[in-house]
Design a protein that fits this description.
- This protein has two domains: 217 residues, Spore Coat Polysaccharide Biosynthesis Protein SpsA, Chain A; 108 residues, no CATH class.
- The chain has 343 residues and is of the alpha/beta class.
Length: 343
């Protein structure tokens, strides 16, 4: 690198003063020489802003007037941040001092690399991967996302099995590195997602535009996870099911999306019955609501999006069903999947 790119770490906060107290100390020790740290506040009603202003006068604070979700919040904040690279960092992530350099050096090797993620491990069990990103994100032919190091509820111990950096399908929003020019070109997050899978949509759009998403094994961070919506929250169930259908509709070629979404409706119906069988009536209702909301979107939508049918741009997509591989074939780890089954 002839000149040192400017990097902005941007932490979106909503009533997360305890996370800021616990994790900002490690972020401020990041040793990248041309660095700005930004806390974007999403209409907090706690003491978040006052804490940052008092304890860290060198940190830039940008305030939204309300909670616009993960998607709208970041879109509004990043319009006010000038840098060559953005790092979207969750407020509950601990970072080592040298975590930025390996990722930026990797991204600088290829002008087509738009976004990247470090290895993401669990804060409370630091020899294991973390659910939200692990060693890079992938997706199957029916839109089910999974990670190298995490398939459904099976989370692997890090034994050095994923120490090879390379191209992936999506990078986790918990610690997302992205070149500003590609963030701008893609239009940022789709605000309809509000939260959950918005980073997968962004990465898929970038891949459809001909760019690459990378995993950097030489950098690792430690994520608490579940800080805003825990896994038992029916609103999270709704977002996951609704957003997954929206993801497919937006990014697959038309007839492929019709086929895949048709299958997904039946698979989601089985999930709904499973929730009912487990006594989780609110989660079952959330699946039904997700489907109704998605159908309204289809009938109202006339958006024009760039969708590529070029299979070379699907690198990181599993050609089969990860549900079948995991639950029927009992393949519990990424290394058990046949590499020939990936684009």
């Amino acid at each position: 690198m002839s000149t040192t790119p400017k990097v902005a770490i941007v932490i979106l906060n909503w009533n997360g003063v305890k996370h800021l107290e616990g994790f900002l100390p490690s972020v401020t020790k990041s040793d990248w020489p041309n660095l700005e740290i930004v806390v974007g506040d999403n209409g907090s009603t706690d003491a978040s802003v006052a804490f940052v202003r008092g304890a860290y006068p060198g940190i830039t604070i940008i305030e939204n007037d309300a909670n616009y979700g993960f998607t709208g919040g970041y879109n509004k904040i990043l319009k006010q941040v000038d840098a060559d690279y953005y790092i979207l960092l969750n407020s509950d992530v601990e970072v080592p001092s040298g975590w930025i350099k390996p990722v930026i050096e990797l991204m600088e090797t290829d002008p087509l690399i738009a976004a990247a993620a470090p290895k993401i491990k669990a804060y409370y069990q630091q020899d294991h991967f973390e659910h939200a990103g692990a060693a890079g994100g992938f997706i199957d032919a029916f839109g089910y996302p999974f990670c190298r190091g995490r398939m459904f509820y099976e989370i692997e111990e890090d034994k050095g099995q994923y120490q090879q950096s390379g191209e992936i399908f999506w990078a986790s929003g918990a610690a997302l590195f992205i070149k500003k020019k590609f963030w701008d070109e893609a239009g940022g997050f789709d605000e309809r997602f509000f939260a959950h899978m918005e980073e997968i949509d962004l990465c898929w759009r970038l891949k459809n535009m001909g760019y690459k998403i990378m995993y950097c094994a030489q950098s690792e961070v430690f994520h608490v996870g579940g800080g805003t919506l825990n896994t038992e929250n029916p609103f999270k169930t709704y977002l996951n099911f609704r957003n997954n259908l929206l993801l497919l509709k937006k990014n697959l070629p038309y007839w492929r999306s019709v086929f895949v979404i048709g299958i997904r409706y039946w698979m989601d119906l089985m999930a709904l019955f499973r929730f009912l069988n487990e006594g989780k009536r609110k989660d079952a209702a959330a699946v039904s609501k997700a489907h109704r909301n998605f159908l309204r979107y289809i009938f109202k939508s006339d958006e024009k999006v760039h969708i590529s049918a070029d299979k070379s741009r699907l690198k990181g997509m599993y050609k089969g069903s990860i549900v079948s591989a995991f639950f029927i074939k009992k393949k519990r780890t990424f290394t058990e999947l046949d590499p020939e089954e990936f684009y």
